[in-house]
Amino acid sequence: MHTIAMISRKGGTGKSTLAIGLAVAAMEAGHSICLLEADPLGTVSNWRRRRTLAGPMVETAHDGYVLFHRVQALAHCGITLTIVDTAGGWSDACRGAMAAADFCLIPARPSPVDIEATAPTLAAVRESGKPFAFVLNQIQARSGRLNGGAGSLGERAIALEIADVLALPAIVQRNDQQDALSRGLGVTEYAPRGKSANEIRALWQWVWARLSCVSQPDAEAPARTYATLPAAVPPAGAQLRLCATGAATGHAGSIAPAG
Question: Could you tell me the pTM of the whole model?
Answer without folding.
Answer: 0.80
